[in-house]
Amino acid sequence: MRRFTGVLVAIALVLVLGAAAFAAPKIGIMTGTVSQGEEEYRAGEEMVAKYGEDRVIHVTYPDKFMDEQETTISQVLAMASDPDVKAIVVCQAVPGTAAAIDKVREVRDDILFVLGTIHEEPYMIAEKADILYEIDQPTRGTTIIEKARDMGAKTFIHYSFPRHMSMPLLATRRDIMEKTAKELGIEFVFVNSPDPTGEGGVAGAQQFILEDAPRQVEKYGPDTAFFSTNCSMQEPLIKSVVKGKALYPEQCCPSPFHALPNALGLKVESKGDVPYILNAINEKIVELGMEGRIATWTAPIAMNFIRAGSEYAMDFAEGKFEDKQDIERAKAALHKYAGDVRVRAFDDEKTPHFLMVVGESIIFGK
């Protein structure tokens, strides 16, 4: 049935292309759902509001994307079946994204693909997409541990699961973290946690964090820094850290909007008002007596991947430039939204269009 559906979608693609009219160019955006990645979802909504519902198609990939890759592929194909769609932005680029691009390329090689937060093998996915934005995970292997040291950490707890540890960039970061921790005299502890895409889902993974983090604080003491590789685990982890007066250097996807406001009971009126939310978090941290024990990046990086990627995509769709891999333009778009972040290529020679980013950190109450 799935194969038959895929054939129908492919046929529809060919038919609608022949009937294309002179209409305003569109872009497609695929993000996670609110439960798996609220920041990306809200950024997608923001782009719909910015450019208009008639110019942006916003869809989501399934929460259990590992088991439902056909759905991810179908969502991308459905956007590409609209002849007015000239570019597609995907963040996070979950498994199935590469296959989706392949399917689209079979019938439409004109579409631009911009990806953010890459789950699949870097060199493989870089061959398929035009511009890729990713957090500089290897560099974070050093910077997160150094920040934990500066915050007074004696132990570093790293929560993850086999699926994430099979992702090259995350696995490399983890190894660098352990090496750096050893060099700085910090005990590194890896804890296997449930995969939110697995049988227990998001709720099961969150419950595990709520139960396990207090045990770790009891065992190692409050000078324990916590880190998890999954977005849906951040809110319960922050709550546990605050309750145990422990340490939290930054999220998997660093941002003042990612899990921190909800975990701290703050209401966010505008996802775009960075100075406001930084100040609100800072005041709350001081109120809780957690000065110097909670940190993040000043820029909402995942949201900025979508903002920058969407602007790049829309400019391409409107014919403002023709080179799909206009790297300097892609960098400029990122700096426009994320500020003075450090940007480097994943591989200068082989993947100059795969851009890796490190943002500026802030330790609240310090």
Can you walk me through this structure?
The protein has helices spanning 2-18, 34-51, 69-80, 97-107, 122-126, 137-150, 162-165, 168-184, 201-220, 234-244, 260-264, 274-287, 301-317, 327-338, and strands spanning 26-31, 56-60, 85-93, 112-118, 131-135, 155-160, 187-192, 224-228, 295-297, 342-347, 351-358, 361-363. The strands form three sheets. Strands 2-1-3-4-5-11-10 form a seven-stranded mixed beta sheet, with helices on both faces. Strands 7-6-8 form a three-stranded parallel beta sheet, with helices on both faces. Strands 9-12 form a two-stranded antiparallel ribbon. Helices cover 48% and strands 19% of the residues. It has two domains: 2-14 and 23-136 and 302-360, Rossmann fold, CATH 3.40.50; 137-297, Rossmann fold (3-Layer(aba) Sandwich). It starts with a helix and ends with a strand. It has 366 residues and is an alpha/beta fold. The longest helix has 20 residues, at 201-220. Helix 3 runs parallel beside helix 4. The model has no long low-confidence stretch (mean pLDDT 92). Helix 2 links the parallel strand 1 and strand 2 (56-60).
Layout of secondary structure:
Layout: H1 2-18, E1 26-31, H2 34-51, E2 56-60, H3 69-80, E3 85-93, H4 97-107, E4 112-118, H5 122-126, E5 131-135, H6 137-150, E6 155-160, H7 162-165, H8 168-184, E7 187-192, H9 201-220, E8 224-228, H10 234-244, H11 260-264, H12 274-287, E9 295-297, H13 301-317, H14 327-338, E10 342-347, E11 351-358, E12 361-363
Parallel strand pairs: 1-2, 1-3, 3-4, 4-5, 5-11, 6-7, 6-8
Antiparallel strand pairs: 9-12, 10-11
